[in-house]
């Protein structure tokens, strides 16, 4: 079983309008393209991973040999908000959009809210979060009433000055609102929006925001991971989005910098399971505020941080970088935009294949379950099953493995890359020993790694080698390695790819080991 999988959501990093975007007023939107025009935009590391190789992102510049598998995900759910987007990433499809209130909330909802909280309300309109406290802050100070507002999203937001209304009282008001807002008025989130300051010096929202989300309507991959006895760690607002369902450990954060710090610390922690990270500033600080340069600067900061995280990934780890919706900062309004989202999937056992355009975010959930060996059925398809690894890619992975060869006696470095039927790739190098006979060949190293994790079905192996790592001819597996491969591989279909400077020579295992001996001969 693989050990860890991290999913990092770059909140609102859309990758172009979905085919039905016109129904949502989002024709022509493209968050990633918009911010790429900023002088602050720099994604050197994500470009190497293959962000420019994702369908529709060629304006970023595709690379010949991306380091990650790439895809563009469509959304099946009817919506374009955080809750529905994250639910679909976790395997839950929402056939209807969550309710929105462009004219404000019904009077009966507000009457019950006022009666149960003991305070009245102000505003009750769609509003910018920063503008609403500017316009209603002094009136709240005079009256003690809650500032209630919404947006184009399915949210009931309550703003309160921390010096006037204690945080716990605000949180209790949100819990009351969450109880009231059920059935036809079941909004996706009730959000506490505390702030500080005064009219003279300006008001500022604090980091004490808290979301009270609707309980997910179905079992998610988070639940499946937890039920399997594995860790399911949420970072940022993930716990709020899923109302705690399926989460074994929740770490709230205060913005991108804090989220990246926590993610880096978790990458250094020994655990088995799933880590789900949301980096919210792209959306809350820059997308909604239509700050193109700020958004681009934040993406550049994430890109500079990324190599530190990748350096902590082990051979049993996988990383998925994706998004939950768009929020084009150059669009006509400040709301979310209905877009595709990009996906990068990186790991030493993940072939860097192009997976095209997929129909649903739920492919992420299927991939998490597949990687961890967890039983979970959803509409998504595992990305590990989604693309064919080319012979050239497999040989390149063998070449990279060769660089790790331990061969102080023969100085002959050999690397192998074994392609499993489920799409994973297991690499190995030769490991020599002073007693010679305990030496292990690269082919068997990769095979034993795979089998020790329960993988026993394979399609091909690539082998490269040369003295001091200089590849000047083909390297065929030795007799012992051929026999080891025969134990698990069909001699009439399993391919052995031998790379050299001249190209790749491909042979069937049966050609290299005719009249072979197997368990059926016993």
Determine the mean pLDDT. 94
- CATH topology of the largest domain, by name, is Alkaline Phosphatase, subunit A
| Straight-line N-to-C gap | 30 Å
Taking pLDDT < 50 over at least 5 consecutive residues as the criterion, the unreliable ranges are none
Helix/strand class: alpha/beta
Draw up the topology in text.
Layout (H helix, E strand, L loop, with lengths): L3 E7 L20 H6 L7 H6 L19 E5 L8 H8 L17 H11 L3 E6 L2 H15 L2 E5 L4 E7 L5 H14 L8 E10 L3 E4 L4 E4 L7 H7 L3 E5 L2 H4 L7 E3 L4 H12 L5 E7 L1 H7 L4 H19 L6 E6 L18 E6 L7 E5 L4 H10 L18 H12 L9 E9 L4 E5 L12 H10 L6 E10 L11 H8 L8 E6 L2 E6 H4 L10
Parallel strand pairs: 1-11, 1-12, 2-14, 3-4, 5-6, 9-10, 9-11, 17-18
Antiparallel strand pairs: 2-13, 4-5, 6-7, 6-8, 12-13, 15-16, 15-17, 18-19
Helix pairs in contact: 4-6, 9-11, 10-11
Describe this structure in words.
This protein has 522 residues and is α/β, with parallel strands linked by helices. Helix content is 29%, strand content 22%. The protein contains 16 helices and 19 strands. It has helices at residues 31-36, 44-49, 82-89, 107-117, 129-143, 167-180, 221-227, 238-241, 256-267, 281-287, 292-310, 363-372, 391-402, 442-451, 479-486, 509-512; strands at 4-10, 69-73, 121-126, 146-150, 155-161, 189-198, 202-205, 210-213, 231-235, 249-251, 273-279, 317-322, 341-346, 354-358, 412-420, 425-429, 458-467, 495-500, 503-508. The strands form three sheets. The chain has an eight-stranded mixed sheet, sandwiched between helices. Strands 3, 4, 5, 6, 7 and 8 form a six-stranded mixed sheet that branches. It is elongated. 50% of the residues are buried.
């Amino acid at each position: 079983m693989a050990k860890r999988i991290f999913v990092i959501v770059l909140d609102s990093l859309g990758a172009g309008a979905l085919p039905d975007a016109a129904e949502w007023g989002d024709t022509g939107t493209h968050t990633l393209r918009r911010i790429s025009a900023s002088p602050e935009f720099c994604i050197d590391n994500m470009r190497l991973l293959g962000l420019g190789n994702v369908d529709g992102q060629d304006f970023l510049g595709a690379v010949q040999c991306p380091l990650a598998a790439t895809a563009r995900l469509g959304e099946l759910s009817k919506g374009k908000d955080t809750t529905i987007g994250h639910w679909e990433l976790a395997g839950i499809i929402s056939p209807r959009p969550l309710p929105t209130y462009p004219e404000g909330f019904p009077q009966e909802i507000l009457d019950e809210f006022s009666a149960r909280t003991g305070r009245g309300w102000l505003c009750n309109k769609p509003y910018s979060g920063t503008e609403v406290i500017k316009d209603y802050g002094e009136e709240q100070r005079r009256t003690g009433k809650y500032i209630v507002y919404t947006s184009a999203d399915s949210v009931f937001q309550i703003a309160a000055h921390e010096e006037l209304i204690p945080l716990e009282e605000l949180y209790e008001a949100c819990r009351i609102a969450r109880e009231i807002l059920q059935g036809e008025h079941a909004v996706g989130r009730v959000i506490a929006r505390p702030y500080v300051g005064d009219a003279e010096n300006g008001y500022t929202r604090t980091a004490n925001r808290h979301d009270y989300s609707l309980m997910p309507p179905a079992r998610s991959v988070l639940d499946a991971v937890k039920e399997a006895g594995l860790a399911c760690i949420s970072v940022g607002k993930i716990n709020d989005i899923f109302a705690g369902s399926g989460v074994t450990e929740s770490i709230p954060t205060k913005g991108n910098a804090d989220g990246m710090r926590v993610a880096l610390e978790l990458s250094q922690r020994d655990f088995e399971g799933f880590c789900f990270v949301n980096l919210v500033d792209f959306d809350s600080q820059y997308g909604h505020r239509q700050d193109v340069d700020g958004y681009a600067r934040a993406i550049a900061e994430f890109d500079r941080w990324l190599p530190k995280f990748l350096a902590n990934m082990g051979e049993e780890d996988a990383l998925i970088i994706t998004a939950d919706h768009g929020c084009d900062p150059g669009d006509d309004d400040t709301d979310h935009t209905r877009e595709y989202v990009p996906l990068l999937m990186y790991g030493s056992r993940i072939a860097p294949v192009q997976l095209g355009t997929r129909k649903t975010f739920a492919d992420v959930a299927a991939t998490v379950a597949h990687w961890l060996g967890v039983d979970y059925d959803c509409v998504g398809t595992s990305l590990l099953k989604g693309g064919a690894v080319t012979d050239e890619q497999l040989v390149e992975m063998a070449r990279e493995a060769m660089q790790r060869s331990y061969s102080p006696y023969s100085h002959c470095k050999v690397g192998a890359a074994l392609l499993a039927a489920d799409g994973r790739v297991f690499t190995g190098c030769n490991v020599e020993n002073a007693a010679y006979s305990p030496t292990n060949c690269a082919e068997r190293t990769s095979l034993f790694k795979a089998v020790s994790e329960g993988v026993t079905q394979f399609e091909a192996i690539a082998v490269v080698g040369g003295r001091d790592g200089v590849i000047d001819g083909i390297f065929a597996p030795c007799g012992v390695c051929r026999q080891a491969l025969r134990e698990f591989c069909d001699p009439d279909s399993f391919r052995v790819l031998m790379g050299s400077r001249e190209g790749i020579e491909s042979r069937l295992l049966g050609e290299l080991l005719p009249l072979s001996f197997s368990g059926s001969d016993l």
